[in-house]
Amino acid sequence: MTPHHRNPEAVFPGLFVPSPPSHATPLPMTVHFPHCLTQYTTGLAAMIAVTALGFTMPTIASAQTGDTPAVPETTDTEIVPLNPLDLRPLVRDSTLSIPGLERAIAQADTEIAAEDYDAAYDTLIAARETSNALAGHYQRLSGQFSGIDNRIYEAHRSRALAAAQMRDAATYRLAFVHQARGQAELAVPLLLQVLASQSPTRELGRDSYNLLYDLGFVTLPYTPEVANTADEATDEATDETNASANETDDLATDEPVIRPLEGGILSTSGLSRLMLDADTAVSLGDNRGAIAKLQEAQSTRQRAIRVLSTAHRELFRH
């Protein structure tokens, strides 16, 4: 017999035991495992059972005691919804907006307080141009929706008024900067523009007129209280008024008020003084001096006309 056809009983003695003869249907051969193999299989099954029991015991114990596994604590954070307006660039940091103009005016106030007039001049020029353009844009938008949608009409009209207010505020501060830099003539057209836009009944218009008085462009200050009671004054109060005026003049001699435009190119007294100097030169036979004074008077007159023409255009532009 070849090795490939050896008897299994010879290889594994006692493993294959033939069944006793029976007259019934023959059954297949019964397999008997050795004792060592049976012990090994039993031990392996016991180990698997113990391992499975180890995994299931904590869950069972937890269910019996009612404890739940520890969950890491999370801090409560407030959920802030996104504002869709913040996603639009002209609403946040743009200078072409009402908040942007307010920031520019505040920056100019800081620069004026620090007497940095050059920086304030640049800031106010930019703010004035931007606010003027913005007021025009919103005014045109408001007119396009007139009679169509009152909500949009009123919204754009309010923005146009706010931008115009920012423009007048920047213009008034720009005139103040010109005054501080010794350029009073340049401040006059700006103050006239603010006065035309605001009217003397409003604070900014009243301040503009009084600054014109401080500069010497007008001869009378404006106080609403005096203006309202002027028509009610009686003849008996005239003497008291004159007396108080004389006392005021006496006090004013100690502390003179400097009004830069008095005697300047924008005043008749300045031109009259030049003509008087020319007449004096002629009477003294100083023809060259007289000619020089007359030429200066003519040049001054032309400069005054240019400045006043600019003021006139600014006055009726708005």
Summary keywords:
67% helix, two-stranded antiparallel sheet, elongated, mainly alpha, 12 helices, 318 residues
Shape: elongated
Question: How many angstroms separate the termini?
Answer: 129 Å
Main beta sheet strand tally, sense and closure: 2 strands, antiparallel
Helix content percent band: 55-70%
Q: Provide the gyration radius in Å.
A: 51 Å
How many strands appear in the DSSP assignment?
Answer: 2
Elements, N to C (H/E): HEEHHHHHHHHHHH
**Structural class by secondary-structure content:** mainly alpha
Tell me, rounded to a whole number, the average pLDDT: 70
Strand line-up of the largest beta sheet = 1-2
List low-pLDDT spans. 58-64, 247-256
Quickly count the helices. 12
Q: What percent strand?
A: under 5%
Concise account of the structure shown:
This protein is mainly α and 318 residues long. Helix content is 67%, strand content 1%.
Write the layout of secondary structure elements.
Blueprint: H1 8-11, E1 16-17, E2 30-31, H2 35-65, H3 89-92, H4 98-113, H5 117-144, H6 150-180, H7 184-198, H8 203-215, H9 224-229, H10 236-254, H11 268-283, H12 287-317
Antiparallel strand pairs: 1-2
